[in-house]
Structure prediction request, 606 residues.
Amino acid sequence: MVKKIVKWILFAVLFSLLSLLIIFYLDLANGPMWILFIELAAIVTLLVLSILIPKKLKLVRFASVLGFIAVTAVMFILAKPTVERTKAVNDKNPEKTEVLTLANGKVQGVYNSNKTVEVYAGIPYAKAPVGELRWKEPQDVENWEGVRDCSTFAPKSMQAKESGVFNTIKDIYAEGGWHPDFNMYPLEEASEDSLYLNIWRPAGKTNLPILVYIHGGSLTSGRSSQDDYNGEAMARQGIIMITIAYRLGMFGYFAHNDLISESPNNTTGNYGLLDQIAALNWVRENIAAFGGDPDRITIAGESAGSSSVNAICVSPLTEGLFNYAIAESSGILAYKPFHTFRDYSEAIEQGNMVREEFNAKSSMELRNIPAEELVKTASNQSAMTVDGYAIVEQPYLTYEKGENHEKALLNGFNAKEADAFNLGIKATAENYEELLAEDMGDYASDMAKVVPADSPQRDQHFIVDAMGDAKGALNQAYSAIWFSYSHYLWNNYMVKQGKPAYEYYFTKTNNSLSNYHAGEIPYAYGNLWRHPGLYNEDDYKLSDIMQQYFVNFAKTGDPNGEGLPKWEARTVDNNLLLQLDTKIKMTEDPNEKLYDIIDKYEESLK
Prediction:
């Protein structure tokens, strides 16, 4: 009797674990919902049959198990995320706005839940860059008939696909746990036809300043509809916020000599950047219809979006298009930038690799290859270049001449910028200098003296981090090399030019992205509430202050305002940063000593 009870307990435990694992995987794979119902029915059927079928009918019992395995296998194959467009607001039946007349046609958006903000999603700012227009400068958008419905975001730009399982695992980490609601994270539709922007404006207001935000993603991924920089909160504070999509990767930064001969501007390799500039031109021409002041535009971006902001600041095509710049966690002002910028020869080399990879004799032949195939390229298409049109010289040269366009700069970096990019690297005392040498060359040993291998480990780390006794040192060094060094240069140039520059250092920890790369975004743009349970009262207080800083800067070029902790501008005599944490205060740059070594390395390349 005892043996039978033990067997039934073991059976119940093992069966429950198996069932939970299956349901967990199906949730990771993201639906659709009917698959979950079929799988649950199969689990219940197997359980019932296991109880009812006598043991002596072994073949029948075996057949029931095989049937269950077959059904489960089919469900695993079919369990793929749904692909859909994202709604502009979460309300099921949002009230529509008035119809606005733009240069190319009429648009109608939707209100947020309390009608304080109007949202216009998916407005085209350029002609679809498909067919013959693939790898050509953005063309003026065509007129449309009737009223364009702007209640959903347009497709994200074409980019490499990730599995539903991988995407959900990332989201589970960001949300601090598994919330099984099945079909929780549908995939957003992707398309080459993606040159659209989204506008959030305070309802009924006019003569408003504008913040144009450029998303990050290494110039190869990302989307304009991401929740962390949703513009509703900023609009409630009296500015118009706009997010833009632009061509990415193979479609935005592919370069080849035969494309130059096709171009009226003799350009190739910066199509994504040209899209961003086209969007700025569209905003200047159309924003008055939304109550915006075209002479009060601020550009902003994070990571590769911040590098893009830096590029826009030096482009001869953007003079007079904007006033101020906000740059979060990247820039391209080193003599040889560490990422998102490359020599023209390297751009052409990677372009030739694409031609060989797809056995194409010309770029025209490449245009006949489906986007879904091209996006699988093994080449590196994640960097801008000097094309002689959008960017005419190495960006640092433009700053040395004082010909950059931003009149004021708000910028900064986070405490643990590089950590997420080094997850697979095991850093030990033995290989530490070798790892540094990959980016610092002969100056790796000098860097290792400033940041010794036995430097303290980080206060947090990812559970999948390969770690090693020198991992804290490696992450500190590369956070400076890849990220904060560019802000050190940028601020120094602004100080030299006598222009206002305000730098932050984001250190606030939390149960979401903490102070890793991109962790500051939902604070700055007021979207902590979109991640329930992951932020506490101190986080919301900091977010309120950061929003005010960013809004004030977009309005006046100065983040300071009544009731806010004083944010001191950088000067010749003041190189302090504003630490953004539970306690907000001016503090020293923790990477100051590292910059001396990186300076020497960069000088050695000249």
User: Anything to note?
Assistant: The chain has three domains: 2-78, 83-374+385-406, 412-604.
